[in-house]
Amino acid sequence: MTSSPDASPRETLLLRGAPAAGAVPYQRAASAPVWGRRSDRSPADDVVTPMPVAAPPPPAPAPRSAAGTPAPHLPPAAAAAAGTVLDTGSSRAEAAAGRAGLRLGDVYAEQLGRLREEARREGWAAGHAEGLVAAERVVAAAEQAAEERLATVQARWERRLASATAAMGAAVERLDATAAPVVDEMRDSILDSLLVLVGDLLGRELAMAASPGLDALQRALTLCPGDVPVVVRLHPDDLAEVPAEALAQLPASVTVVGDDAVERAGALAEAGNQRVDAQLGAALERVRAVLRS
Hints:
Blueprint: H1 76-208, H2 212-223, E1 230-234, H3 236-241, H4 244-248, E2 254-258, E3 267-271, E4 274-277, H5 280-292
Parallel strand pairs: 1-2
Antiparallel strand pairs: 1-3, 3-4
């Protein structure tokens, strides 16, 4: 860009996009109005005085490409215009790239947030499922351990109960084996004592009786049937003590005879095929046999 030495600062401005040799002050251009004041002159009254043009600077050495071939040389004005176009295009490209980058960043951020949320939900679901499975395993293991402990305790108590039952059974058997002879002996002693006492009482009663033979005869006839002939046997001493009146009052079917085999105060009666033992000693033996059975 060149200017005249005597021109004002505003007149040194050049129109861009034109060669520097043809540049004129904007106030002297035929089509450029003067801003801020009204012009009364016509374009014909303006005289265009050509300004001295300085020699253009020597061109810079042409850059070489990567292959070593010199790049094509452009005039300064064309280079400036090309630089302006390139600057403008690069600025627009950068702005567009920035807007695209902002839009892509928003899209990426939204996509990233959605992916994070999905990953969080999937992770929570997977962790929840794994937790349930682990809890079920823990519960199953605890139940199995409890069942095993219960079975062990139950088996131990069953063994203890069986052992205690066996010990009690053995003790009872030993007690029975030890006490049975003693009990039998005690029972026999008691029975013997009782029978001796009864015999003594009966002997005293018979000793006080007026006619023991008559009492024995009456006991024997009480147990015999009355429609058959009866033979009563008494001890000869007892038969001698029976009054004759008592013998005369007996039925004709009853016969009384003496027998030394019969004990004193006893009688034996035979009525057909029936035999009645009215002896006190035999009666006591029968009582003893019944009590011991």
